[in-house]
Amino acid sequence: MSSSPRKSKVYEARRLAQGQSIAIDGRGGDPSWQSAHVLTDFTFPWTKLTPPVTEFRALWNEQHMYFRYDVTDEDVVLGAGADAMGKVIGSDRAEIFFSTGPDLNPYYGIEIDPRGEVLDYQATYHRQMNWAWSCDGLVAETSLRDFGYIVEGLIPISTFRKLDCLHQDEAGYYLLAGLYRAEFSHNTTGGPVIEDWMSWVDPQVASPDFHVPTSFGMIRLLR
User: Fold this and answer.
1) What is the pTM of this model?
2) Closest C-alpha to 15, from 54, 55, 66
3) Does residue 5 lie within any of the structural domains?
4) What whole-number distance in Å separates Cα of residue 27 and Cα of residue 33?
5) Domain total of the chain
6) Per the domain annotation, does 138 fall within a domain?
7) Any domain includes 107
């Protein structure tokens, strides 16, 4: 297991009480979510637009890490592809990446659109994609709301261990993770869908790209 990265942005995922779990239904109504730290630190690194509100929450227990996005979106775009990849790539979506180390060799991506379509993959830096990979034990549910959409999910802790993505240092367990949002909008002139990109960590690269080490922070699993 690797040591902690330096100067990393950190999200603290609180631990659920003994025996407590979260029912994943895509609605965000489980009362356990009330104990989660709410992260709203998402920006448009590549435009000067005012970012719509994006809230991220995570909690964990010995069995699972639970995550949730509450996405404010007045213009939800849903792609019309023939398969999950085509649908997700053409849609608004919430994304979470996690990595075996800061060099992203390998790392894993999970992208979930407002309908609950999932695109998950393994990759190595830079953008060497294995589309055949799927996240063992992933559960994802969503709901469309008047204000946008909600994405809820869980990933087994055993999956992080198996993939060598559950790191440990003197403070405990953590994940090297990227938290992102694809914010698309319909073109009022009838042209192609307008694609904008939001990230928790500003990657500090010139062109939109989440698939770089500088876009990752840390999810600390609090004891």
Assistant:
1) 0.96
2) 66
3) no
4) 11
5) 1
6) yes
7) yes
